[in-house]
Please model this.
Amino acid sequence: MGDIKAFSGVAPPAPTPFTSPDSLATFKFPLKAYLQEHPEFNSIAVAAVVFNDDGKLLIVQRAAHDSFPMLWEIPGGACDYEDESLLHAVARELWEESGLRAKSIITLVGKGLPIPYRGNRCMCKYSFLAEVEQHDVKLDPNEHQAFLWVTEEEARAGKCGDVEFKYTTKEQQLTVCEAFKLRNDGQAQEN
Model:
């Protein structure tokens, strides 16, 4: 626990099909169609919140040579016009950044986060709770250099074992906290 895990192995096979509930129907459209319905946005980014069997959340450390160098985030990135839908972009980004294959994209975490950039442009970032087939993380060293599975307390404190970490943005930290709240609320409803 708390050990930084670095890249190990070769790229995994392409992501497998995943399931998603009807409540996410809004995100089952290709990027072009979604942007036509939401002209206030110029682009869309997505992220995948993943918990392991011990209830720990996956965070990844950005590569030293990339934007937001050495800061931490949940796996994600920009939707591409080639993605079948925004949800397919979630599965693709999760696979590209962590080697994990989405089994199910369960629900939206929080709300979309509008992010202004380059003057009058605006991107919206959506984060989704995802269930994966296995938890064997394999990073792409061009994008991320380490990963951690963190408890809620560690996520809030910014420290896991001997590793201190900072998130890419305050909003990223809030998304992590919202993910734990959503997970805890879901467990309470199951009991």
Q: What stands out?
A: Residues 1-12 have pLDDT under 50 and may be disordered.
